[in-house]
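ESCALATION

Customer reports they have been waiting on this structure for their group meeting. Please prioritize. Original submission:
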Amino acid sequence: MAAAKKEKNRVLNGVLLVMVALAAGFAALAWSQGGSEQTLRGLSRGVDMMIRFGLLIAVSFLAAGLIETLVPQEWIRDQLGADAGLRGFALATGAGMVTPSGPFIAIPLAVSMLRAGAHGAIVIAYVSAWGLISLHRLIAWEIPLLGVRMALLRFALCLALPALVGLAARAIYRSAAP
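Update from on-call: job pushed to the front of the queue and completed.
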């Protein structure tokens, strides 16, 4: 258990190594196509994005950590744990619907839920609801741009999907258990 936790907390892991390799590959490609000028222009744009979004990402993770300390773990385990049943899927779906913003908030919250004892299938329902039936996106983007009829039709058709995806994930978790 301690070894698994240590592995999760490592900064230098496979994902980071893949990202470094991709960045190096893109830098080599930029160099081959436009020399140092194109490479430096690309790196400069990357630094601009890091400055623009880096603080937002850092603050989002800080907020998720604070939420972990504010919401009692026993409540998370009771309401969103393995024994939560359909109530847990409904609660996760509702939370996903009202979670604002993009992945900077939703994904750190999902990680916090898992760390506090939420069942993976219920967290999958949360992330699915955030991605499929987000109320802020419906109101701010879809209704104004797609029109009321199309936006509400899409929303209504997707309404049951997060819970269904979560229930399917729970079945997979159960079948994979020893």
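Sent to customer with the following note: The CA atoms of residues 15 and 52 lie 22 Å apart.
Escalation resolved.
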